[in-house]
């Protein structure tokens, strides 16, 4: 059986240490309104975007310059019928040196095409991870959500 969980990866010229620091700076690439601690194992943080999406995540694993694992404790989407989507899933960031570059692989274990939110969520992760997080690592400036719809899916859902 193959894992159909959403995954994406990118490479940057920066070091694994720079990638690890940027991933832990969740406000710098995902949302400036994150509440809670995001850089210590066991800590919990909350994400919210309007009334469309809110979730509570726990930091489960931090291996400096190699791996970050989050666990979704609770989740709510206003646009899905299935209220269990995302709950109990894990979000992984794996960091590896590839020659002169650093590769970051992001996987949302359990976010599969069968989910109602898959299209909107994969669009969101692509924008925030492959776009904003990559920019934060590469340039020092990400493009986090600051209260406005950024992704195409967010724009469609807020209309």
Defining traits:
seven-stranded antiparallel β-sheet, 159 residues, 4 helices, alpha+beta, Alpha-D-Glucose-1,6-Bisphosphate, Chain A, domain 4
Cα shape: globular
The CATH topology label of the domain at 6-33 and 59-68 and 90-157 is: Alpha-D-Glucose-1,6-Bisphosphate, Chain A, domain 4
SSE order in H/E notation?
EHHEEEEEEHH
CATH superfamily of the domain at 6-33 and 59-68 and 90-157: START domain
Helicity level, as a percent range?
25-40%
Main pleated sheet: 7 strands, antiparallel
Spatial order of the strands in the main sheet? Answer: 1-7-6-5-4-3-2
On the 0 to 100 scale, the average pLDDT is 93
Helix vs. strand class:
alpha+beta
CATH class annotation of the domain at 6-33 and 59-68 and 90-157:
Alpha Beta
Report the portion of residues in β strands.
25-35%
* Straight-line N-to-C gap: 39 Å
Provide a count of the helices. Answer: 4
Count of β-strands: 7
Low-confidence segments, ≥5 residues, pLDDT <50? none
Question: What would CATH call the architecture of the domain at 6-33 and 59-68 and 90-157?
Answer: 2-Layer Sandwich
Radius of gyration: 15 Å
Pfam family, one: AHSA1
Domain Activator of Hsp90 ATPase homologue 1/2-like C-terminal: 23-136
Family: Belongs to the AHA1 family.
Protein name: SRPBCC domain-containing protein
